[in-house]
Amino acid sequence: MAEVVLADMLAWMPSLQPVWGDREDPTWLAQPISWAVAARSGTPMLPVLRGGEIVVVSPRTLRDQGIGLRQFAADLGRTGFTAMVLIGVDPGDALLDTRWLRLSSTKRPSEVEGEINRLLTEQRGLLYSRGTDLGRTLLSALSEGAEPAAIAALGAAAAAIPIELKEADAAHPSDQGFLAQEGGRLYLSVPIGEYQRLQVGPFQPADRAFANLSAERVGDAVVTALRRADLLRPRGPARAAALRSLLLGEAKPGAESALGLPATDRYRVAIATAKGVLREAGRLLGPGVVLHEAEDVSDASVAVFEWCAPNRPGQLRVERVERAIGTGEWLVVSDEVRLAGLANAMDQARFAASLLADGEIGGQVVVFDAVNRLGVFGLLYRLRADPDLIRFVERTLAELRREDPRGVLRQTLRVYLDAGGVGVETAARLGIHRNTLSYRLRRIAALSGLDPADPKHWLTYGMALAGERVLNREPTKSALEPLGAATDVERE
Prior knowledge:
Blueprint: H1 6-12, E1 16-18, H2 26-29, E2 36-38, E3 54-57, H3 59-65, H4 69-76, E4 83-87, E5 100-103, H5 109-143, H6 148-159, E6 163-167, E7 178-182, E8 185-192, E9 196-203, H7 208-232, H8 237-247, H9 255-258, E10 266-272, H10 275-284, E11 289-297, E12 300-307, H11 319-324, E13 331-333, H12 342-357, E14 365-367, H13 371-374, H14 377-382, H15 387-403, H16 408-418, H17 423-430, H18 434-448, H19 458-471, H20 488-491
Parallel strand pairs: 2-3, 3-4, 4-5, 13-14
Antiparallel strand pairs: 1-5, 6-9, 7-8, 8-9, 10-12, 10-13, 11-12
Helix pairs in contact: 5-6, 5-7, 6-7, 15-19, 16-17, 16-18, 16-19, 17-18
């Protein structure tokens, strides 16, 4: 939502007359407005001012409060107010240093307060409604692959304001925006990348807020279209190899800039069975996503999904992707990260892919930050360097590791827990006799001190096995070795 500033208020309510020395100062005219508040004869005279307020006061209120106009103005100057409206005061009678507006009216301050606030509410509602309609038009154009110039033209038609994509020049550089006035109408210029700008206007002063909002929305859509068009051009294997090095933490400093990845955007790393799966996922995740393909890692296809900050989804929805990918295909997506976190996101994706390959988790699409996709592994992954987790896993599974280095008993325990403690189902999955399963379960209970047949111990076993998978420690290596000798309690 675009901010409402003083210039908008003056255009919407011409009866407000600016009366101060530097009333054409563009910086002051661009001050944001929150709401109007009226000075009252009672106590307190004003509510707590939080910034951006238009304070409405009359001479009578000041007399009732026993305070002079200059003192009142000086007190306001120490707050974050935007402007003071004086009702019925002659400009020659109020030579003030503070910023103030004159209103010729016989209304009480509370009535003027209500009038201004109703106007602000109405205009903000219109801005929201028109901005939403414009956003839908731009989103539709992006999803259909429209060119940047076409997006600007569609935005102009939807906003009913001239909007044109132009090349930057000496008079209108691309590194700064400006607001110009000509014949009572306004023009707005917004930089787009290094070499282009978006020209908006002419428009009437009363349309400034919506023109600014339109420039922001259309500009974001044009930037997305420009970057998508640029990335669709053939680049050869060099870019994919460089991106792979970046993801694996092998790239030199500054590699992100060389690849043209903005630091302000958000990213997720994806690993899949094939590049076709990544491309289809990028298409189905929405028009705001940009796909960067990397060189394969360990025979798996890798890519980076990028979202411009305003376009990123609050929660990644992958249901359409699940329905689209074929049997035997899979996709793993990391948590959302900033540019500096790409290597960590790659580690997340590789870890989740290994869980999927080993059957530790199910499904064809796994999103790292979705509990229903990764389960407890997402939590344990973030605790992988925590000494308490290392000690918990070791103390629960130490004897099983020592006596069964091949891991047969731990695998039996995993399948048993996965089968909900049903012996027949567990034996069938492992391909062993039920008597063999009974022997293994007794052996597990004897070594660990926890009976796997007792459901009270399932959570402990499940967390320990999942923690071991996260830590990926050698079965014969003791995590307690650095802790020294056993305590007196343990000896007893």
